[in-house]
Amino acid sequence: MIYEFKGYIPVVHKSSFVHPLAAVTGNVIIGKNCYIGPGAAIRGDWGQIIIEDGVNVQENCTVHMFPGKSITLKESAHIGHGAIIHGANIGRNVLVGMNTVIMDDAVIGDECIVGAMAFVKAETIIPKRSLVVGNPAKVVKQVTDEMIDWKTKGTTLYQQLPQECHESLKEVEPLREVPENMKIQEGVYDTLRDFMKK
Questions:
Q1: How far apart are CA 105 and CA 176, in angstroms?
Q2: d(CA 136, CA 106)
Q3: Residue 28, helix vs strand vs coil
Q4: Residue 74: which CATH number?
Q5: Handedness of CA 55, 61, 66, 68 (dihedral sign)
Q6: 89 domain residue, yes or no
Q7: Considering its fold, how many domains does the chain have in total?
Q8: What domain range includes position 94?
Q9: Residues 46, 92, 89: CA angle, nearest 5 degrees
Q10: Angle at the Cα of 9 (from 6 to 12), degrees rounded to 5?
Q11: Which CDD domains match (predicted)?
């Protein structure tokens, strides 16, 4: 669902995919090859939200801010399921883990990885290439080249997903029986632990 608010109409590049069950409101600019999952709420009612090229905002995420603030999710940012970005700026090629909360005026530097369920307090500045975990979140080490390689490969899958959704996603009635020839999807991406073992 795309909503105009007080004369502001979201701008969504034609190569991006916003799921019909997501809500994008007001002063929102979504760049190329972005994926916005079902249940995501991106509310540009009180300020501008810029989502740069190649960003994914996954299922049930919220992106919002206090009145008069504007925020940017920079190129290739990866916002995991259920995360909340409230008035924070997210750097290039960052991974925000599932159910993480990042509060107002926080800045997450480029190529950081923020672990699942972390809580980043307001006005926290995280230097680039930091691994951040906990509640309250703290930097525990630097992100290695191998970790960034793993993250980037995962984000690439999401950058391919908009085109795949445009080509094949459609509402249907469910089958009533499992077909005999039903295939299981192939594994195309490892967990970080499995990736690091290779």
A1: 50
A2: 13
A3: strand
A4: 2.160.10.10
A5: positive
A6: yes
A7: 1
A8: 2-142
A9: 25
A10: 160
A11: LbH_paaY_like
Q: Say how far apart CA 158 and CA 56 lie, in whole Å.
A: 6
Inside any domain, residue 160:
no
Q: Which two tokens stand for residue 125?
A: 């500045």
From residue 171, give the alpha-carbon distance in Å to each of 18, 19, 21, 165, 174: 15, 11, 12, 11, 9
Q: What is the CA radius of gyration of the chain?
A: 17
Spell out the alpha helix ranges (H) of 48-168: 145-168
Tell how far CA 158 is from the center of its chain: 9
Q: Tens of pLDDT along 131-177? A: 999 999 999 999 999 999 999 999 999 999 999 999 999 999 999 99
Question: Phi-psi bin for 131: left (phi > 0), alpha (psi -120 to 50), beta?
Answer: beta
Q: What is the pLDDT of residues 1-44, one digit of tens each?
A: 999 999 999 999 999 999 999 999 999 999 999 999 999 999 99
Q: Which two tokens stand for residue 88?
A: 């924070």
Kindly report the backbone phi and psi dihedral angles of residue 24, in degrees, each rounded to the nearest multiple of 5, phi listed first: -120, 120
Question: Are 106 and 127 spatial neighbours (Cβ–Cβ below 8 Å)?
Answer: no
> Is residue 11 in some structural domain?
yes
